[in-house]
Amino acid sequence: MAERGGSIHDRLARVPEREWKKGAGLDALLKEAREPFVLRGLVADWPLVAAGWESARAARRYLLDHARDRPFSVSIGPPGHDGRLFYDADMAMNFRSGTGKLADIFAGIDSAEDQGEARTVYLGSIDIPSHFDGLDTANPIDLGAREPYKSIWIGTRTRIAAHNDFPDNLACCAMGRRRFTLFPPDQFANLYLGPIDNTPAGRTVSLVDFDAPDLAAHPRFAEAMAQARTVELDPGDAVFIPSMWWHHVEGLEPFNILVNYWWRDTPAWLGQPQVALNHAILAIRDLPPEEKALWRDLFDHYVFENDAALTDHIPDHARGILAPLTAESAGRLRAFLLRTLSR
């Protein structure tokens, strides 16, 4: 039982819109946010947005004016590719990846437009400061004291499978239209996730085709849809996606540009939870059931509960990594892990 043509979006709840004002208003909204929301016109005054309203080629010229002379990573679909950057029937990628100068990549897009061809070309998560000179300062946003990772996503019509990210995310549509379909973090079991170590772009993705969900093969996806929220962004609009929310992203126009900002409120020297999950798969998952049960209790004791009773009986100066971590103690723990993993 498959549903086609993006019709599922007509039945989904909408991501709520929030009022905003320049300056501290955005900072306050982000501080209190626990769920997604939309900010219409947040970056409508960007020069990049203005160039996009002129034409796709004007937007590409604007980006080239700021581009550094270095390779850009790009994903390219074969002839007849439908824009879904995903797996093929053998669970290999259905696109090829490479690098090239931005001018050459854009020249290929220009040529396809001239010939009326629909090609899939996608530059995903390009670090802005390292690949562009002054693009971020010419198109600013006030995120208060946050020091975000700034990236840009450039491409033709694309569909990016539902995935999540550890940081909070503010995604700004600079050109074209972007459709986001969002799911709460607890919906992971209903999204039918694929492999962890073989992914299109580094994050585990849903194997459900949102253009034609097969509810016979993926029956729990119906529950995910009941919890989903959707929004279409026009140029200048933005959506806030909290940490760990699943999001399926579509570039709906022949040419689309998205700029996003990732940040965490926790210190940068803390470890990445995904790394801990991978290590747990290596060290614990395949143990006998009774041993796994013991380790589950230990994880609860040391990690998830972590209450005062854990260390009350240990002198303050002797608690080591059981005390709240600092940059120094985290560094020592990381060095210890590297030594043990290299044996």
From TrEMBL:
Gene3D superfamilies named in the record: Jelly Rolls
JmjC domain mapped to chain residues: 110-278
InterPro entries in the record: Cupin_8, JmjC_dom, RmlC-like_jellyroll
Domain of life: Bacteria
Protein name: JmjC domain-containing protein
Lineage, top ranks: Bacteria, Pseudomonadati, Pseudomonadota, Alphaproteobacteria, Sphingomonadales
